[in-house]
Write a structure and sequence with these properties.
Elements (H helix, E strand, L loop, with lengths): L1 E4 L3 E6 L2 H23 L2 E5 L5 H9 L8 E5 L1 E3 L9 H9 L10 E2 L8 H16 L9 E4 L24 E4 L10 E4 L1 H6 L2 E6 L5 H7 L19 E7 L7
Parallel strand pairs: 2-11, 3-4, 3-7, 4-6, 7-10, 10-11
Antiparallel strand pairs: 1-2, 5-9, 8-9
Bound molecules: 6-phosphogluconic acid.
6-phosphogluconic acid binds next to strand 5.
């Protein structure tokens, strides 16, 4: 493991998938613990994609204060929650959240609704109720990934999604050319309020988008640049292949 850090921006390079999972789970659990100590509960937001699985499975083996954690999603793919494409389904299985005693604290996005904008508005209302209307919607810990095209959450390049600043949750249209279904996503202002953002990336295909995300430029071209505006701590947990060299 090696580390580069400033006060709010930290890069940790894991030497193996196992180390990536272990470090990710440790950072996640520490953020949960700090939130529970400071505020009595932890509000977390989970990304999908393939990278977080090993981190979530490792986290599930730790002694977590499950009666104090509220689980939300960063984004969801249009479709049924039982679909293999569902971010809810994957994270719930990986984290072992299919237990009756935590069900009331597991808050999925209802992306099976053909009216995704209505489902996004319902999720926004849920966030306002949970956090309180007069408080910032500041997640204690949020996992994010980065796509080969520089997207994060479901904020895709060339779609205007990073500029949405009048909603907490938005519906994003399908992109047939990329083979992507429509999505529901937390918007950039919510990402930027998070206290700890854990960005998980592995593999050489992430090197270029990460280098771009770390350099100033239009967010519309590289949406992961919104992470340069996060008010809390951003931890990039990458493997050697994903770490930008040049
Ligand atoms: C999703 C996401 C998305 C993901 C990145 C990285 O639903 O697809 O939440 O933003 O984090 O695409 O995905 P990988 O981990 O699969 O590379």
């Amino acid at each position: 493991m090696s580390e580069v850090s400033t006060a709010r921006f930290e890069v940790t390079v894991a030497e193996s998938e196992a180390e990536h999972a272990a470090l990710g789970a440790e950072i996640f659990a520490r953020a949960i613990d700090a939130a529970v100590r400071a505020r009595g509960s932890a509000k977390v937001a989970l990304s999908g994609g393939s990278t977080p699985g090993p981190v979530y499975r490792r986290l599930a083996q730790m002694a977590l204060p499950l009666d104090r954690i509220d689980w939300f999603w960063v984004d969801e793919r249009a479709g049924d929650p039982s679909s293999p494409r569902s971010n809810f389904r994957a994270a719930r299985a990986d984290l072992g959240l299919d237990r009756a005693d935590v069900a009331a604290r597991v808050h999925r996005m209802e992306a099976e609704d053909p009216d995704l904008a209505a489902a996004a508005a319902r999720y926004e209302a849920l966030l306002r109720r949970t956090f309180g209307v007069a408080s910032a919607i500041a997640f204690d810990v949020m996992t994010l990934g980065i796509g080969d095209d520089g997207h994060t959450a479901s904020l895709f390049p060339g779609t205007g999604a990073t500029a949405i600043d009048d909603r907490l949750v938005a519906a994003i249209g399908a992109q047939p050319a990329k083979g992507l279904e429509a999505r529901i996503t937390l918007t950039a202002p919510v990402l930027c309020e998070a206290r700890t953002v854990l960005v998980l990336a592995r593999g050489a295909a992430k090197q270029r988008p990460i280098a771009s995300a770390w350099s100033e430029g239009p967010e519309e071209d590289v949406p992961a640049r919104v992470l340069l505006r996060v008010r809390g701590q951003v931890v990039w947990l990458v493997d050697r292949d994903a770490y930008p060299t040049g």
